[in-house]
Amino acid sequence: MASYFDEIQKYFQHHNRTKELNGNHTAKVHSVGWSCDGRLLASGSFDKTVSVFLLERDRMSREATYRGHTDSVDQLCWHPFHPELFVTASGDKTIRIWDARANKTVATVNTKGENINICWSPDGQTIAVGNKEDLVTFVDARSHRVKTEEQFKFEVNEISWNNENDLFFLTNGHGCINVLR
């Protein structure tokens, strides 16, 4: 039996265009990401919602729509080894940790600005979130409390840890990558 992705691949080969996966968003989709086990796909939107899809043997189906943010969901990231947990960054000056099993928010953490990027550390213990004012906030993923904040004097565009969890990378508006220990 062909998988959903085999069918998509055949579609691309014959039609040479994109295939639309409708998440029932009513506005621009800003972010998309796969769970660590590859079974769930989430999309975050300007419409303040997140849609989660389940990849089954022969198809992909929408599982749930998550509501709670009061501004756009600009980025999301799945937990590195718990396939049911993901975190969202929003313009409403919060991040939310969600549990896909329970279809609800586990925690809401207030931040100082409109959040535009987010990543989970490889060990799952820390969430980093960057805002429009180039402030990166590090949140303890278990206690849901802010550990530290780092204000940068340059435009921070994207953030990520290395796999060893000992270096933190920031891309900037000057065409460089900055590395923190």
TrEMBL record:
<dbReference type="InterPro" id="IPR001680">
    <property type="entry name" value="WD40_rpt"/>
</dbReference>
<protein>
    <recommendedName>
        <fullName>THO complex subunit 3</fullName>
    </recommendedName>
</protein>
<feature type="repeat" description="WD">
    <location>
        <begin position="22"/>
        <end position="63"/>
    </location>
</feature>
<dbReference type="GO" id="GO:0006406">
    <property type="term" value="P:mRNA export from nucleus"/>
</dbReference>
<dbReference type="GO" id="GO:0000445">
    <property type="term" value="C:THO complex part of transcription export complex"/>
</dbReference>
<keyword id="KW-0677">Repeat</keyword>
<dbReference type="InterPro" id="IPR015943">
    <property type="entry name" value="WD40/YVTN_repeat-like_dom_sf"/>
</dbReference>
<dbReference type="Pfam" id="PF00400">
    <property type="entry name" value="WD40"/>
</dbReference>
<feature type="repeat" description="WD">
    <location>
        <begin position="66"/>
        <end position="108"/>
    </location>
</feature>
<comment type="similarity">
    <text>Belongs to the THOC3 family.</text>
</comment>
<dbReference type="InterPro" id="IPR040132">
    <property type="entry name" value="Tex1/THOC3"/>
</dbReference>
<keyword id="KW-0853">WD repeat</keyword>
